[in-house]
Amino acid sequence: MMNAEQLSNDLAHFSGSENVYRHTMGYVYTDGVKYLAENAGAFWLLDLIASYRAKPKVRREPFVVWNVRVCSKGAIVTADDGNGNKLATQRIPFTDFPLAEIKLYVSDGVIMLPTEY
């Protein structure tokens, strides 16, 4: 797993995406998200986001912001509609996710980094 500083620096260089990758639960994700998942051991995050697609409150939104904040007791993952209206919250009791926080966007079924939007 990559250290937080190197990962943050690398993720900042993604803008747009030449490829998309299909998640087994229907979403697709970009090159930057693939890089994040591979280098931060965060495929669990893609699974979590995809699992919330079954929730009507999340599914009906064309744009969702997913925030991950790591704390001393694991992590808190929240979703909102981009205007601060909460759609979902889940506590993760343990994580070795290297970043203190990250934000991902889901727009029309594509999971992406904010720099790829």
List the domain count as a whole number.
1
The CATH top-level class label: Alpha Beta
Low-confidence stretches: none
The CATH topology label is Nuclear Transport Factor 2, Chain: A
CATH architecture: Roll
Give the radius of gyration.
13 Å
Helical element count?
4
Note the run of SSEs as H and E: HEEHHHEEEEE
What percent strand? 25-35%
Count of distinct strands: 7
Account of the 3D structure:
- The protein is globular and about 35 Å long.
- It has one domain (4-116): Roll (Nuclear Transport Factor 2, Chain: A).
- The chain has a seven-stranded mixed β-sheet with strand order 1-2-7-6-3-4-5.
- With 117 residues, it is an alpha+beta fold.
- It contains four helices and seven strands.
- The mean pLDDT is 96.
- The two termini are 25 Å apart.
List its traits:
117 residues; alpha+beta; Nuclear Transport Factor 2, Chain: A; seven-stranded mixed sheet; 7 strands; 26% helix; 33% strand
Provide a short characterization of the protein structure.
By secondary structure, the protein is of the alpha+beta class. It is 26% helix and 33% strand. A hairpin with a 5-residue loop joins strand 1 and strand 2.
Topology:
Elements: H1 4-11, E1 20-22, E2 28-30, H2 31-40, H3 43-51, H4 56-59, E3 63-71, E4 74-80, E5 86-92, E6 101-107, E7 110-112
Parallel strand pairs: 2-7
Antiparallel strand pairs: 1-2, 3-4, 3-6, 4-5, 6-7
